[in-house]
Amino acid sequence: MDKLVQKTESPKKGLAGKLLNGVVLIFVLLCVTMLLSSYFSERGGSLLGIRSYIVLTGSMSPVFEAGSYIIVKEKSVEDIKAGDILTYEAGDAVLTHRVIEVIKEGNDYSFITQGDANNTPDKNPVAQDKVLGTAVFWVNRLGLVLMTLRQPKVMAGVFILLCFIVLAPELYGIIREKMKKV
Fold first, then answer.
1. Which residues contact 154 (CB under 8 A, 6 or more apart)?
2. Which of 3, 72, 98, 132 reaches 20 to 30 Å from 175, CA-CA?
3. What is the residue range of 48's domain?
């Protein structure tokens, strides 16, 4: 005699569930990418030639404000021109200011920079070996969010929330199926 096997399938996700999972996945991937880029940047490295920083002052206002998140792409010093937004090492700090003049002496380059909100150029030219790259993308206030997310308790809470968002539709489907049987 053949045994009757009942196959249970997980409930099919609707368009809204798939869309929500897609948004959560993109959000998680962006956060991981930003955190990795930030991790490498803080240690003097880059992730595929890209670094990221959180702007701490308003010297580039109104282009970007304090608390902005900027993406910096490595660029050959020969390709940097006046008007580019340059990120460079200045002692223990990393600064991002606009290039107002390029100085070429033989094979060596240096750059005169100035913050858009500043009235005068920076005191010292930026030597080519201090250049980290040029700012290619920024989001105002995102840096403030990322600084908050770096706190362990906040990070744990966000992780738990994301797990709940992803798992809740599955749990709801399982509970609904069990309730039908009762």
1. 148
2. 3
3. 15-167
